[in-house]
Design brief:
The complex is a heterodimer of chains A (255) and B (402). Chain A has one domain: Alpha-Beta Barrel (TIM Barrel). In chain A, α7 links the parallel β4 and β5. Chain A has 255 residues and is an alpha/beta fold. A nine-stranded parallel beta sheet of chain A has the order 5-4-3-2-1-9-8-7-6. Chain A contains twelve helices and nine strands. The relative contact order of chain B is 0.16. Chain B folds into two domains: 153 residues, Rossmann fold, CATH 3.40.50; 215 residues, Rossmann fold (3-Layer(aba) Sandwich). In chain B, α6 links the parallel β5 and β6. The radius of gyration of chain B is 19 Å and the shape is globular. Helices cover 44% and strands 18% of the residues of chain B. Chain B is an alpha/beta fold and 402 residues long. The chains are: A alpha/beta (255), B alpha/beta (402). At the A-B interface, α3, α5 and β6 of A face α9 and β11 of B. Chain A: InterPro entries: Aldolase_TIM, RibuloseP-bd_barrel, Trp_synthase_alpha_AS, Trp_synthase_suA. Chain A: Pfam families: Trp_syntA. Chain A: It catalyses: (1S,2R)-1-C-(indol-3-yl)glycerol 3-phosphate + L-serine = D-glyceraldehyde 3-phosphate + L-tryptophan + H2O.
Chain lengths: 255, 402
């Protein structure tokens, strides 16, 4: 069974962390993954850096710019990950924009993902209909789950369509915003969390955007299966480097 | 039968999903989907409304000053031994063709019930055109502009401020046009309900390339009528226009796209030379890729990272081209020529001396092709003079040490 599906069956709220590969130092990728797993994180999104990340705020864009300047590339990421499965067993997802994947070759990219043991992909600017028409067969062939986003503005009809096409979890964007830009969830957002929960979708939901600490994690996972933290972790790496990951994870989910 | 014939004829227009051949589409994050979808569903119907057309045409006539003249450039023609007409978009209010699109889009925004406008700008021409129509309609206006461009284009920043717009510096990435576009898109993600994004060129996700081309199509519509008066023919032998993102070219080509006997010539900025690493000649240097929600030709690294273009002309300084132009290039329908900074500057100065018209440096690129691209004596060549050179005086002064 796919590691993502397996993880989603565990009887707990899942904590996922996003980080940009090649940041803060180009060769930190593997060490950060190992450290996140060791500290109890349930699954990881590995960011493939892009020059023009439209859906991201300044924190993640800055980390991408630094990673690219240090020489991070798609090939380099696969090189870094080549032995990852001998040491890490939690689900690993690559999150990246579509252009670098298109240039690498979608088929080749998916084959490489399968080879190193990636379980799924999140590609914010690959719309669900284009995926369905052109790429689903390739993803399926390589055992990759493609994760789609929904937002508070996504229509019920479209959410049902995305639920239909998905086979893993649905990435629920908490508020109309880019990454890293909110502080706490208002009543409107909490009502949205409940509205989605009441739809009884076949795929569990994991909330992302605007989660930075224990409070926001608990709010987000009141109805949802899990939550993803990105910008807040990048800020932590920026401030404390990669040797202090335990503190961060504990601050979100105390043991 | 009639429909089949008509469809078959319209091969260089966007299809209903916004594809020009293999280019176009809408590669957008889900956060943008509701905004873009709302526009996509309604833009054609709104544009067809009688009240919309009436208001659009009235503003183009009384406010913008259309129709702009189609001027036979006698001394210029004599020098190159062919017949050259200049379509005088430089005489539009605000100094360039950009305002055709912003008038159209502000009317669109009003009908969509939006009360906040955002825009991106490079040199500031589109920003000024957007700030102008927002002032005209009394609507809030926020313009994103690269921090570096704000320093380079102080007069246009001042104009936008006078017109009541808020100019927000884009501080990410290379701090130029592409980053200003990223910031505007992020603003739209953060404000999905009340805001309309007025994109300034035939770029971005569907329906923008098609919508902007349709608003700019007034250019070729007028050329047809005017050429009929002057030459007793609607179709020139060639239409020439400069291409950055490509909105003035899209407008000048629009009604000729499916008339194969009209040659289409798109002129890109070669910067310091195509292969110097300081160029914006996308057709020569670009590969298929995705920028700002559209699949098109794009200057990028082997790894798919978008690279920085260069041109002396800020309006041509974009790492992609609109999907219509990518298709014109790939299909061979369009002839693509690139012109260096030096050649463009010389052509600008020459037009000033021969015809008493100081062109924008963007438009000077289109004028520069006559040095090497020869036409027959009886060819009728229409050059779209997309903007006036007032905004470029400092660049001309520095370059020629005037």
């Amino acid at each position: 069974m796919n590691r993502i599906k397996e993880k989603l069956q565990e009887d707990k709220k899942l904590l996922s962390i996003y980080f940009t590969s090649g940041y803060p130092e180009i060769n930190d990728t593997v060490q950060i993954i190992k450290s996140l797993e060791k500290n109890g994180v349930d699954f990881i999104e590995i960011g493939l850096p892009f020059s023009d990340p439209l859906a991201d705020g300044p924190t993640i864009q800055e980390s991408s710019t630094i990673a690219l300047k240090s020489g991070m590339t798609t090939n380099k990421l696969f090189e870094q990950l080549k032995d990852i499965r001998s040491e890490v067993s939690i689900p690993l997802i690559i999150m990246g924009y579509f252009n670098p994947i298109l240039q690498f070759g979608v088929e080749k990219f998916c084959a490489k993902c399968e080879e190193v043991g990636i379980d799924g992909l999140i590609i914010p600017d690959l719309p669900v209909d284009v995926y369905n028409d052109n790429y689903k067969a390739i993803f399926d062939k390589h055992g990759l789950k493609n994760i789609f986003l929904i937002t508070p503005q996504t229509s019920e009809e479209r959410i049902r369509f995305i639920d239909e096409v998905s086979d893993g979890f649905i990435y629920m964007v908490s508020t109309a915003s880019v990454t890293g830009s909110t502080k706490g969830f208002g009543e409107e957002t909490k009502a949205y969390f409940k509205r989605i929960a009441d739809m009884k979708l076949k795929n569990p939901q994991v909330v992302g955007f605007g989660i930075s600490d224990e409070d926001t994690f608990n709010d987000a996972t009141k109805y949802a299966k899990g939550a993803i933290i990105g910008s807040a972790f990048i800020k932590h790496l920026n401030k404390h480097g990669k040797n202090n990951i335990e503190d961060f994870v504990k601050s979100v989910r105390p043991v | 039968m009639f429909y089949a014939k008509k469809l078959n004829k319209m091969t260089y227009q966007a299809d209903e999903k916004g594809y020009y051949g293999e280019f176009g589409g809408a590669f957008i994050p889900e956060m943008l989907y509701p905004n873009v979808e709302e526009l996509r569903k309604q833009y054609l119907d709104i544009m067809k409304e009688d009240s919309f057309q009436k208001e659009f045409k009235a503003l183009l006539k009384d406010y913008v000053g259309r129709p702009t003249p189609l001027y036979y450039a006698e001394r210029f023609s004599k020098k190159y031994n062919t017949k050259v007409y200049l379509k005088r978009e430089d005489l539009c209010h605000t100094g360039a063709h950009k305002v055709n699109n912003t008038i159209g889009q502000i009317l669109m925004a009003k009908r969509l019930g939006k009360n906040r406008i955002i825009a991106e700008t490079g040199a500031g021409q589109h920003g000024v055109a957007t700030a102008t129509v927002c002032a005209l309609m009394g609507i809030e206006c926020i313009v994103y502009m690269g921090e570096i461009d704000i320093e380079r284009q102080a007069p246009n920043v001042a104009r936008m401020k006078m017109l009541g717009a808020k100019v927000v510096p884009a501080k990410s990435g290379s701090k130029t046009l592409k980053d200003a576009t990223n910031e505007a898109i992020r603003d739209w993600i953060n404000n999905p309900v009340d805001t309309h994004y007025i994109i300034g060129s035939v770029v971005g996700p569907h329906p923008y390339p098609d919508m902007v081309a349709r608003f700019q199509a007034v250019i070729s519509e007028e050329i047809k009528t005017q050429l009929k008066e002057k030459e007793n023919r609607e179709n020139p032998d060639y239409v020439v226009a400069c291409v950055g993102g490509g909105s003035n070219a899209a407008g000048a080509f629009f009604h000729y796209l499916d008339t194969p006997e009209v040659g289409i010539i798109a002129v890109e900025a070669a910067g310091k030379g195509i292969y110097t690493g300081e160029s914006a000649a996308t057709s020569a240097l670009g590969k298929e890729g995705i920028i700002h929600g559209s699949k098109t030709l794009l200057m990028q690294t082997d790894d798919g990272q978008i690279t920085e273009p260069y041109s002396i002309s800020a309006g041509l300084d974009y790492p992609g081209v609109g999907p219509m132009h990518a298709h014109l290039f790939r299909s061979g329908r369009g002839e693509f020529i690139s012109i260096t900074d030096d050649a463009a500057m010389k052509a600008g100065l020459q037009l000033a001396k021969l015809e008493g018209i100081i062109p924008a440096i963007e438009s000077s690129h289109a004028l520069a092709i006559f040095e090497d691209r020869k036409f027959k004596e009886d060819d009728v060549v229409v050059v779209n003079l997309s903007g006036r050179g007032d905004k470029d005086l400092n660049t001309y002064i520095d370059y020629f040490e005037l």
